[in-house]
Design a protein that fits this description.
By secondary structure, the chain is an alpha/beta fold. It is built from six helices and 17 strands. It has an eight-stranded mixed beta sheet, sandwiched between helices. Strands 9-11-10 form a three-stranded mixed beta sheet. A two-stranded antiparallel ribbon has the order 1-4. The longest helix has 41 residues.
């Protein structure tokens, strides 16, 4: 009887040690996983899981190309940079708006938005700035249905300031790198000036999505947005970039470096689509390709905290 009691006690002790070991292992594993998630976010990568059963991100997915040497990048490398998608940085990206085209069939002018919970525009409190309408309202109307307040801008339409609908407010202003009236009598303002003028209407809110489609003027506007500090007010950014067809490699490198500067300031690319209806020869590069790309980023410094 005495020996039986001793054996039972030993079994209980061994079982208790085993349970404690398992619990410590689980705690240690969770700590490592949490640390990895924090590290991924610090590197500008969304790691929000849809639910507790979702697998952890595979680390090899986050081994992105090194774009630090754009000064010496070849013509092919530069074009690869423009089309680089970086899709693993957003688990769920949706396209909003656009016009159906033929030859090839597909949407033109759509904007991609990351709707992962940690960065998504939150319906019924989100703010959208949309530059470049050209009488094509599908993106703006989609965002209104999503629940956002939309401010739309285009000086080229010959339209007066008006409310396009209950939550879409149109201004005949252009986006530029300074405030001016152009030779064709367009009113053009910097993003910081426009935001300051409209703060009384929408409050000092974050711009949940900034859409820019302004036909080559993006190359002047983007540096000014960075220099002015307005990037800190932009949660997601979608830009249609336009490339000239006949310039030396140095000019394409300079444009790539503008986009890379955005990324070095915390903007994380999550999508890029080339325009298949806007293709041809890059004369001096002796390459063929697309002259337009729809590129989207989110701001890793403006993740939702709750």
């Amino acid at each position: 009887m005495k020996h039986s009691m001793i054996r039972i006690k030993r079994i209980w002790v061994v079982s208790l040690i085993l349970v404690i070991t398992i619990l410590i292992s689980l705690m240690f594993s969770n700590t490592i996983q949490n640390a990895k998630m924090v590290a991924y976010v610090k590197n500008g990568l969304l790691t929000t899981f849809i639910n507790s059963k979702s697998p952890a991100p595979v680390e090899s997915q986050f081994n992105f190309p090194n774009w630090e040497n754009l000064d010496t990048a070849t013509d092919t490398q530069i074009m690869n940079y423009f089309v680089w998608k970086n899709r693993s940085s957003c688990q769920l990206a949706h396209d909003f708006g656009g016009t159906m085209m033929n030859n090839p069939s597909g949407l033109d002018g759509q904007k991609t938005i990351c709707i992962d919970p940690i960065i998504t525009p939150r319906g019924y409190e989100c703010l959208i700035y949309s530059f470049g309408i050209n009488n094509e309202w599908s993106f703006d109307e989609n965002m209104e249905r999503y629940g956002c307040e939309v401010y739309s801008f285009d000086p080229s339409m010959g339209a007066e300031d008006h409310d396009h609908s209950a939550k879409i407010h149109f201004y005949s202003w252009g986006l530029g790198n300074r405030d001016e009236i152009t030779d064709n009598h367009w009113k053009v303002f910097s993003l910081s000036s426009i935001y300051k003028n409209l703060t009384a209407k929408h409050g000092a809110k974050i711009i949940d999505y900034l859409k820019i489609d302004i036909e080559f003027a993006e190359w002047d506007v983007l540096p000014q947005i960075m220099e002015s500090g307005m990037l800190a007010k932009v949660r997601q950014l979608g830009v249609e970039i336009h490339l000239p067809d006949d310039e030396p490699i140095e000019n394409y490198r300079a444009k790539a470096k503008i986009l890379r500067s955005l990324e070095l300031m915390g903007m994380v690319r999550f999508d890029s689509k080339y325009n298949p209806w806007y293709k041809g020869d890059f004369v001096q590069l002796k390459l063929q390709g697309s002259f337009g790309y729809e590129i989207a980023w989110y701001n890793s410094k403006l993740l939702h905290v709750s």
